[in-house]
Amino acid sequence: MAASPGLAQPPQPQPQPQHETIVVTGTFEPLSLDEIDRAIRVLPARENALVLNTLVDLLRLDPSLDLQERAPDGVQTDLSIRGSSFGQTLVLLNGQRLNDVQSGHHNMDIPVPLDTVSRVEVMLGSGSTMYGSDAVGGVINIITEPPEGMELRLRTAVGNYGINQQRGSISDSFGKLSEQLTFSRDFSTGFIPDRDYRNLQLASSTHLVTGLGATNLTLAYMDHPFGADQFYGPYNSWEDTKTWFAGVQQALGNDTSASFSFRRHSDLFVLFRDQPEIFTNHHSDESYQADLRRHQTLSNATTVSYGVEGLHESILSNNLGNHARSRGAAYVALDLRALRRFSLSISAREEVYRNFSLEFSPTVAGGVWLSPRLKLRASASRGFRVPSYTDLYYHDPANLGSPNLRPEREWTYEGGLDWNPGGRVHGAVTIFERRERDGIDYERSSPTDIWRALNIQNLDFTGVEANLRVTPARGQSIDFRYTGLRGVQDTVPVGYTKYTFNYPTHSGVIAWQARLPGDVVLRTRVGVLDRRARDPYALWDLYAAVTRGRVHPFLQVSNVTSTQYQEILGVAMPGRTVIGGIELVLKGH
User: Fold this and answer.
1) What is this structure's pTM?
2) What DSSP string describes 353-388?
3) Which helix (H) or strand (E) covers residue 307, if one does?
């Protein structure tokens, strides 16, 4: 659109850097991060792998992500965003669902090793318009990409609490074909009895370019047995979860793509580890997902995206019974841009599930550059979540589901200001509100009663997110991030609730990373968390590595001050954890 004669040219956004960040989450087509009108964060994994121990270490850099661990290495970790429950957070692998139909507790059962992960993209706020059920509080998308060229990485490490780790990765490119094979093994005898764990992950990531378009194939397997003392009450429990995943994405020309994924998850749970005959559950669920998407450019300033999706989920369980359900959805999105200054996207999704029930999920998002350094953005979106089979049918000595639960529904409103002066400082602030209806939780009338699933009405969250990144020198960065939350419920249950009011009211992170002379890489993080009705605590982590040559020694210290804390009430976490090892790297042309 041309400017009118005699009018001053509107301020233009700052030119994109040479290596701009392209985002595929929260947008129907890939866009640069500066063009997105939603709160999106990109967490690079591969370039920082030597100063990360697990994927959880990476996610802890964002205080809006509440990771309630029961043990290190992602053992039964519940991930929630902006005060939502773990079931209200959608986890994707290359844009394909990983959430478990049995229970939201397994949303961090990520089957791919850390070496497979290129980056993690986080969308804060509702994403049901794009992804359907579960995307209430937000979405994390774990993205895998094979490295270019030949590369071999072997890593081994040991630590206290009987920690023994091995990781390996081999990749190569053959013309238009790229392949990466990875494995990871992490073992610990536990810092107290019945808190041992073993995590095995295997993955293959393939990228192929043909005349039809790009093909991406991901295959993965995870086996995760662990001692679960106090996880589900005063019991010395034991659990073993396994995940199988296969996902393929196929481009059909420049404007059309298709994808298909299969996920199988099994959960063997023993209430008393030394007496499995008293109470043992075995659940096995499968999901199949397929979608067809198309993107068309109508003009230089207007694009339209549309598509259809299908999802089938089933479960076989000695406790929950045998069930199956299917969902289908169609969506359309219109994206408008003008003068490289204004942007507006309008999108909507209609999803059909359970006896032809309908869920309509619209989103409106827009942005305007107030100056070359300031961008104002705002959005409104609707999300929903269908109850899991645990919510509906589970029963044990301490918990009871309800088959009469209604789906959760919510509206999220947010506004933000991004500041990019073009130098060594970047900042942003976002204010948001989530209005939730029919939220799913568990209630009991007294501490001796059992937990019973129910719908909770009229729960509203208001919050603020602020971040500032300073680059004091080349190769160094300092991040300051803060998230504040306040939840209000105007209809209070008679007794106690299990999850709703366990959110952090204040959460802050200070992180510093530097590449020093001698190819020494240092990263440290201090996180402070004040959970509602609990005492605040701070955790300090420290990582160091040498990246020169082929042999890279590294040292990782978690909870440096050996703080005593509980992220899940009644489940103690370990004190200072020290892990040291070496990585061998061989690269070809």
Assistant:
1) 0.92
2) ETTTEEEEEEEEEEEEESSSSEEEEEEEEEEEEPPP
3) strand 302-317
